[in-house]
Amino acid sequence: MTSSVSSRMRFGVFLGPEHKPGNNPTWDLERDLQFVEHLDRLGFDEAFIGEHHSSGWEIISSPELFIAAAAQRTRDIKLATGVISLPYHHPLMVAERITMLDHLTRGRLIVGVGPGALPSDAAMMGLEYTQLRERMEESLEAILALFTEDGVIDRKTDWFELRRAQLQMLPYTRPHPPIAVTAVVSPAGANLAGRFGLPMLALAAASPAGSKVLAKHWEMYSEQLARHGFGEPDRADWRLVSCVHVAPTREEAERQVAYGIDHAARYALRDASFLKAVYETSGLPEDAPWLDVFRASQLGVVGSPEDVIEHIEYMQEISGGYGTHLIRVLDWASPRDTLDSYELFAREVAPHFQDSATRRVENWRTFSGSEGEFQKALTAANQRAQQRYDASRSLES
Questions:
Q1: 20-29 pLDDT, tens per residue?
Q2: Tens digit of each residue's pLDDT (9 = 90 or more) over 318-356
Q3: How far apart are CA 304 and CA 310, in angstroms?
Q4: Which of 88, 163, 313, 320 gets the most CB atoms within 10 Å of its CB?
Q5: In whole angstroms, how far apart are CA 85 and each of 6, 241, 343?
Q6: Calpha distance 258→251 (Å, rounded)
């Protein structure tokens, strides 16, 4: 592995999803599937699908089931769990579902794992929220053993047991599909990812608290990789998340998100302590418009293609470099404007970071800067053709 980012930058989405609780859930799920189809046609690289069990907003309870349906509608885009909350499931069941889904997607699966984001989810299952990270570590260790160790696995913790456990079929991808570990603000995720040699997924990278620890997370991650014999880290494997809505102009983008930002931003910024920090550092009044609060939160960008390019370049700068930018999908614009935003992103933002339009621009500059050279050649060719025609007519007569 290398420490620099030299490969083509990848782009994807982090789809919670986040829909207003009053919406028709059947239609929202169908719209999410159609959205992933749209991303596949546009050439996006990845779509991470969330797991949540409460709040009324993020209604996908099983990312695996959603991915199985989306895989039948898509061709190229990689489909990812974003994330499986490991403490909620027996590790053998997780490994079995991953294996099956890896086959059903023909290797298009990415496995994002985390401890579980919503305390309300854990409360309904009678779990102590402060203990979820320890459970996640125990689960991930067992899952990796099931994928990589020969023979059977015996393991016992205070919440699960494996007795002569073994997967009944090997994954499509050997030794297992790519696995990414969430690293939010605490050091737990970065240390765990480094311990097992797995890439990080920075869910809060654009928040004030998350951006402050990016460099520290990379340092801790690198130290753990070296300590456990995995060598140098590769920044191309690092995924960062922020919110993006793009339109031809900043004014148009802001007009479009006015459609639903009052609801979407209230949920996206639901952490009261985070909101307090935003108000304290920005000087905003508590009744400030949600678009102003969003700007002050630094969670992302609403603007023109140039604004979005500047935002991603800023994220590259504060992180030291990363390989995949994931857009956190918010239900803040109309369905039509949302689809158009991702199309504009694919057409005008992504090429800036992928060099996909470089030769086209070079050729246009050569052509347009020829000072009439090519036009003169065209005129001369037409004149010659006319002269030859006139000469042939003279011979005939």
A1: 999 999 999 9
A2: 999 999 999 999 999 999 999 999 999 999 999 999 998
A3: 10
A4: 88
A5: 32, 18, 31
A6: 11
